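hey so i finally got around to running the thing on that chain from the lab meeting. sorry it took forever, my laptop kept dying and i had to restart like 3 times. anyway pasting the input first so we r on the same page abt which one it is
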Amino acid sequence: MNLARVDEYVEGSEPDRVYLTEVAQGALKELVVGDWLHVEQVEDEVWWMRVGDMRVTVKTPRNGLPEVDVERGFYDMVQGDTKSIEGSDSPQGAMGRDDGSGRDGEE
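ok and heres what got predicted. didnt touch it at all, straight out
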């Protein structure tokens, strides 16, 4: 694969081409790998991604946790599994887990 650093969008790039767009101060603006991965900052606190058949939007507020929206099958047929972990192994589940201290996960 070729890697090219460019200052603006590369029109008509080949499907196997890899390129990124850089803005001032070394911040990543855009990354494209073939036709299956595309990451782009679309607003100050909003990122958009294509990963295979999936569209991902990430909102990154300065004071708070990122908000992630995922849409499967947006660009192509769904390939692979989709899982949402909200049980005892997830961070949300661990917050309420009884660690034996009698505090039920509280600090």
